[in-house]
Model the fold of this input.
Amino acid sequence: MDDLSLGERLRQRGVSRRGFMKFCAATASMMALPPMMIPKIAAALEQAKRPSVIWLSFQECTGCTESLTRSHAPSIEGLIFDHISLDYHHTLQAASGDAAEHAREEAMQANWGEYLLVVDGSIPLGANGNYSAIAGISNLDMLKECAEGAAAIVSVGTCAAYGGLPMANPNPTDAVAVADIIDDKPIVNVPGCPPIPTVITGVLAHFLTFGRLPELDGLGRPKAFFGQSIHDRCYRRPFYERGQFAETFDDEGARKGWCLFKLGCKGPTTYNACATAKWNEGTSWPVEAGHGCIGCSEPRFWDAGSFYQALSVPFRDVGDTILAAGTAGLAVGAAAAVWNRKRKADAREKRDTITIKDLSKES
Ligand code: FSX
Done:
């Protein structure tokens, strides 16, 4: 394995200085950092050495990894991803069986206290943790083992961040989130089902640049990417403010690109960067493609009612609607934070009753 810095690696791959600075400027803007930080980001990224990353996939659909690896043609974000030393990733690694587990243990030992642990998927606590295991090790035990020597943890996707799809009612495996299990490490949540690839790489770039995780909101998400609602940054917002709404997916309003609020768009209560970062190399995003936001970066979004039911915001006149939607967004955010705290306490109580001894009894 070579020991090139990120700057050297980018040059080797033919990335120009101009292209690199453009990426640094975009990263600074995504992280809501002032322009004066661009040279600092560039200097730090230029010198950055390969950090070791252990990536664990638990109960999930692999959409998070697909999002990261399949959506872009080779880009600087992709190269940053190449630059990290991905020492263990269930889906991407060539090794299997004992060799793969050996690589994980070796990487952990060699980088103890310094590696970054990335997790996608939720962790089942039902059946004493036996619903999902890799190499005979339950997800719960593998998470606890790998978290112990990690410098920090990135929970990628809504499943790892808040339980996501596996936790949806009736939650048959008693699935919980990473932060429900681990309470003694810095954790950053990068929700989304799947999450935006540039947001995942933005968080990695922040770690590479500053050696720490970015500033977080009340739900553990980086404020730079999740600080504003979809509604706040939606290009259809002027139609909302003028009271121009599509009522069906094929009416005149839909054809004219009017607001999708009445068709169930959850933009006012959803915090994510889709409206600015977009998808597929900035090509489009769900609302631009004509479908309302389904709120996939929020806790419990699968159980929050129909994706096609309008939010229960009172319509009187346009001014009231804007105020009510804003207030509804804040209220939903506060309720989600309270729910999250309670869920963590419940999950930890359950976690503490599951031990390795219990697992061996089960098998
Ligand atoms: Fe969950 Fe990710 Fe949705 Fe799928 O790993 S956030 S179901 S896109 O794959 O965890």
Summary: Residues 60-64, 120-121, 157-159, 164-165, 193-194 surround FSX (CB under 6 Å). The first helix runs from residue 6 to 12. The beta strands are 52-57, 85-89, 115-120, 123-124, 133-134, 137-138, 150-156, 175-176, 187-190.
